[in-house]
Amino acid sequence: MTRYKRTPTGPQERPGRVCSGNTGKTETTMPMTDSSGPITVVVAADQPLLVEGIRSALDQAAGLHVAGTACDDLDALRLCVRLSPRVLLADLAMLGALESLPRRCPAVRVLALGADDGEAGFTGALRAGAYGYLLNGSRPSEIAAAVTSVAHGQVVFGGGLAPRLLDRLTTPPARSPFPGLTQREHEILERLADGRSNAEIARELCLATKTVRNHVSNVLTKLAAPSRVDAALRARDAGLGSRPVLTRV
């Protein structure tokens, strides 16, 4: 398997890698874009042990090479811009902060990794532009196979998620009680009905908190609701939400 030469580093660093201080970012020193060589990957998650475990597993897999790792979204974006990997394997919670990735790195394909095995996980990954979604507990061989598939343009869902996604796509949508809202605004309203904060909504939908605030403002305007509590109550009256029904006083 072809390997790219890396610049030697100081005695306290991992041989063949450049470590940027205490940021948790590790990178090679040159872009890895040759499609005839190994599939290059950037791994990004806010858990250093998870990142290191995935890096080790992928570097041992035939045909794969981890070009860099990052423990926050800004470092992940910088690495993708600098190294042009074929695949970014990123924690689902980071994708909301990587909204500019498709514009700045259109050739990079994203594979999301998360703990949520419910609908919010894989739909959040799809809406964030990911080519696939794996659960955190996926086997190393499953992760390596998924990275390879995504690099070749395939869509991958692990952990038995594919049947649920297919069922969602083939089930006719129910008529919305709020037809003036966009699909995204309807998703926001559903979560308001459950009493979720902007930060919680942002994590579930892989959006920046500022983006969620803008959507909430649009929802309140369209519903002529004076507050998010009033909007939530109207949504509950219309059958939205899954938590215990709020009681009007």
Automatic annotation (TrEMBL):
<dbReference type="InterPro" id="IPR058245">
    <property type="entry name" value="NreC/VraR/RcsB-like_REC"/>
</dbReference>
<dbReference type="InterPro" id="IPR011006">
    <property type="entry name" value="CheY-like_superfamily"/>
</dbReference>
<dbReference type="GO" id="GO:0000160">
    <property type="term" value="P:phosphorelay signal transduction system"/>
</dbReference>
<keyword id="KW-0238">DNA-binding</keyword>
<dbReference type="InterPro" id="IPR039420">
    <property type="entry name" value="WalR-like"/>
</dbReference>
<dbReference type="Pfam" id="PF00196">
    <property type="entry name" value="GerE"/>
</dbReference>
<keyword id="KW-0597">Phosphoprotein</keyword>
<feature type="domain" description="Response regulatory">
    <location>
        <begin position="40"/>
        <end position="151"/>
    </location>
</feature>
<feature type="compositionally biased region" description="Polar residues">
    <location>
        <begin position="20"/>
        <end position="35"/>
    </location>
</feature>
<feature type="domain" description="HTH luxR-type">
    <location>
        <begin position="174"/>
        <end position="239"/>
    </location>
</feature>
<feature type="modified residue" description="4-aspartylphosphate">
    <location>
        <position position="91"/>
    </location>
</feature>
<dbReference type="InterPro" id="IPR000792">
    <property type="entry name" value="Tscrpt_reg_LuxR_C"/>
</dbReference>
<dbReference type="GO" id="GO:0003677">
    <property type="term" value="F:DNA binding"/>
</dbReference>
<protein>
    <submittedName>
        <fullName>Response regulator transcription factor</fullName>
    </submittedName>
</protein>
<dbReference type="GO" id="GO:0006355">
    <property type="term" value="P:regulation of DNA-templated transcription"/>
</dbReference>
<dbReference type="InterPro" id="IPR001789">
    <property type="entry name" value="Sig_transdc_resp-reg_receiver"/>
</dbReference>
<dbReference type="InterPro" id="IPR016032">
    <property type="entry name" value="Sig_transdc_resp-reg_C-effctor"/>
</dbReference>
<feature type="region of interest" description="Disordered">
    <location>
        <begin position="1"/>
        <end position="35"/>
    </location>
</feature>
